[in-house]
Specification:
Number of domains: 3
Mean pLDDT: 77
Shape: elongated
Order of helices and strands: HHHHHHHHEEHEEEE
Helix content: 40-55%
Strand content: 5-15%
Radius of gyration: 35 Å
Low-confidence stretches: 21-26
Number of helices: 9
């Protein structure tokens, strides 16, 4: 293709675009009253459903004379989608524009199986969803992906959260019995018997909270042994 042919093709494209704008852009014009109603509806839904609110902004922008291509570039969608939203509005007004007709696929588990899984989750703590994928596959014969099993957990009202430590209530009777037993052992021991009490220092006796899947509204608590961080008392005696 030489330069003359290329120049001719470019002129034809420009002429086609101008002809389209002249013949069809008038169809996208909206009256002041229509724009006002759309603006009021946008203020009503903008903080509730953002992607629905964007549809209204797109129709307003096109109705004010904006080009479909520039609007599409602003909202990171294609120009055909911009025109489709406008056609929805023209065909059925604001209600048709805001209507969502997407239907998700049916669940892989029945309601009965979901209740069985919820009971299993109440009785067993999962720190990760990967073992749960295996359990669901082996128990119910349903194969879930990582994202799919995560969505299932949320739909069952379970949340990935961290356990929080709560102080353990000391059993004074048990503690006193331990002291009495030690005193009795020491008092009855031969004078040549040696007792060793060692502070291990490094071992940590206290529980450490981790993240896991727990039911919403149910306290995820873990009893703490003490407020000290790393203490381990050991005892040994020999004849």
């Amino acid at each position: 293709m030489n330069y003359k042919d290329l120049y001719f093709v470019c002129c034809c494209l420009l002429f086609t675009e101008f002809l389209f704008l002249f013949l069809f852009m008038s169809d996208y014009k909206l009256s002041h009253e229509q724009l006002h109603k759309l603006a009021n509806k946008y203020k009503e839904v903008k903080n509730k459903i953002s992607y629905i609110a964007n549809r209204i902004l797109i129709v307003i922008a096109l109705g004010r004379g904006g080009s479909a291509s520039s609007i599409a570039e602003t909202f990171l969608i294609d120009a055909d989608t911009v025109r489709r939203y406008f056609r929805l509005y023209k065909a059925g007004g604001i209600n048709r524009l805001l209507e969502m007709r997407y239907e998700g696929r049916s669940s892989l588990l029945t309601d009965e199986q979901k209740e069985q899984l919820k009971q299993h989750l109440r009785e067993n703590i999962y720190l990760d969803v990967k073992p749960l994928i295996v359990y669901v596959r082996e128990t119910f014969g349903a194969q879930y992906s990582l994202s799919g099993i995560t969505k299932l957990m949320h739909s069952l009202n379970f949340k990935y959260k961290k356990l929080h430590l709560v102080p353990s209530k000391p059993d004074s009777e048990t503690q006193q019995k331990c002291v009495d037993d030690d005193n009795e052992t020491c008092n009855d021991a031969d004078e040549n018997k040696v007792f060793y009490f060692v502070d291990g220092v490094h071992p940590q006796p206290n529980s450490r909270p981790v993240y896991g899947w727990f039911e919403r509204g149910v306290e995820a608590a873990l009893s703490a042994n003490s407020g000290r961080q790393r203490v381990n008392i050991k005892r040994r005696f020999e004849d």
